[in-house]
């Protein structure tokens, strides 16, 4: 009975198209209003008993008073979703939340309304049972995570203002991931302990422009192309960060016999493993170093016009251990051309690595209880989450979504055919319930 109820709530929330956009004037505010109202209707006890502070336009920060207020737990999620690409063919409507093959299909089921609904349902059912958490529990739901909007930072500001120093923070990312590692049979309960820093720069070359019939050599477009080419050829140095070494070590007993010794001794064999990962393709290589992707290019607007300005946008994912300053130094040195201007559009350092102490152990043991077949392990997250803002007030920031996900499901995030298994969702609700029950005083 309870099970069914939570799935219906998820469906109702997925049907509301809360698509975020970097330009606030292009956001369907009515959808966000509807979502906030629907959440209140679906989780009445939570809204009655918890204290709510609105953050930014539609961000929600709830405080559930526990038996002690200091060292609280923060559970995060976000209510916005990425747009649906009109050209991608979904098997089922993106905002239909239809049930097929034992799953709810739709944008946001995995990222991140499944998580948001699971947190709320866990709290709602615990309130129904008269449960009081051992510590304060804060729920922080962002409304513009997908466009790196200000809601999460404002929520952190609000907590700071109140002098709240969380024991730990738990956000999206990670999963009970099946087919996570070649040859490893059991699913891996990956908990993100750090995330790469997302930084964007623009390379720009100015010149004289002119008519395309009389081109001079080394025009802005050519100089820019040379800079892009150099950046692509020379990578920053690679290494295995400590959480990756620990991940490999924990997977070793489950890996094919030939790989076991290598993985078990990942710390000592770091340089060798790093080379193996780089050779295994872009996904594995990204685990070992800072990456540079030239994403936008522009020159002149006309075919017969020489560009007076050529620009390239570069999206950089900074590995833990590297810094924005170090990356910029690498770019200037590698490009080696003073005519190429480097402008930083957006800067984020990699998040500090969270410790594996009591809070991590609580997450781990709750994973083992609810998903006995899974191997819990730390990892470095490649994508960015709102939780990076919380590293300002908390050293224990973790990223884990308690849902079983196949490889295809993980690839459907921000893509098409996003769907969450009904059993997986129900297990996720149970995981949050157990986590809240197991929080020590
Ligand atoms: Zn997300």
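^ Assign residues to that structure.
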């Amino acid at each position: 009975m309870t099970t069914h109820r939570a799935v219906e709530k998820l469906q109702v929330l997925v049907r509301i198209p809360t698509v975020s956009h970097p330009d606030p004037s292009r956001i369907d505010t009515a959808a966000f209003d509807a979502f906030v109202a629907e959440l209140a209707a679906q989780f009445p006890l939570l809204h009655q008993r918890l204290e709510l502070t609105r953050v930014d336009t539609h961000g929600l920060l709830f405080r559930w008073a526990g038996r002690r207020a200091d060292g609280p737990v923060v559970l995060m999620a976000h209510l916005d979703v990425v747009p649906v690409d009109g050209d991608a063919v979904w098997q089922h409507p993106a905002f239909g939340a239809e049930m097929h093959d034992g799953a709810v299909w739709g944008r946001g089921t995995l990222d991140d309304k499944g998580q948001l609904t699971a947190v709320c349902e866990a709290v709602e059912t615990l309130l129904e049972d008269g449960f009081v958490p051992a510590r304060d529990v804060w729920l922080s739901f962002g409304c513009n995570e997908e466009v790196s909007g200000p809601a999460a930072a404002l929520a952190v500001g609000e907590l700071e203002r109140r002098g709240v120093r969380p024991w730990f923070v738990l956000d999206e990312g990670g999963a009970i991931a099946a087919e996570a590692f070649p040859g490893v049979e059991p699913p891996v309960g990956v908990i993100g302990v750090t995330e790469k820093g997302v930084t964007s720069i623009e390379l720009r070359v100015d010149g004289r422009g002119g008519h395309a019939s009389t081109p001079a050599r080394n025009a802005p477009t050519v100089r820019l192309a040379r800079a892009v080419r150099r950046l692509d050829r020379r990578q920053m140095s690679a290494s295995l960060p400590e959480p990756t070494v620990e991940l490999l070590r924990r997977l070793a007993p489950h890996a094919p016999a030939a790989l076991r010794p290598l993985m078990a001794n990942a710390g000592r064999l770091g340089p060798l493993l790093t080379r193996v990962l780089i050779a295994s393709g872009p996904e594995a290589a990204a685990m070992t170093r800072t990456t540079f992707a030239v994403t936008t290019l522009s020159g002149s607007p006309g075919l017969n016009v020489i560009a007076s300005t050529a620009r390239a946008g570069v999206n950089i994912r900074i590995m833990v251990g590297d810094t924005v300053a170090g990356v910029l130094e690498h770019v200037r040195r590698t490009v080696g051309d003073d005519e190429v201007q480097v402008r930083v559009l957006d800067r984020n350092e990699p998040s500090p690595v969270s410790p594996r102490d009591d809070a991590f152990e609580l997450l781990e043991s709750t994973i083992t209880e609810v998903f006995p077949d899974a191997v819990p392990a730390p990892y470095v997250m490649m994508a960015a989450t709102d939780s990076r803002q919380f590293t300002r007030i908390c050293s224990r920031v973790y990223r884990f979504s308690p849902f079983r996900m196949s490889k295809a499901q993980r690839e459907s995030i921000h893509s098409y055919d996003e769907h969450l298994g009904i059993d997986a969702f129900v297990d996720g609700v149970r995981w949050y319930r157990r986590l809240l029950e197991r929080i020590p005083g």
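The chain has a mean pLDDT of 95.
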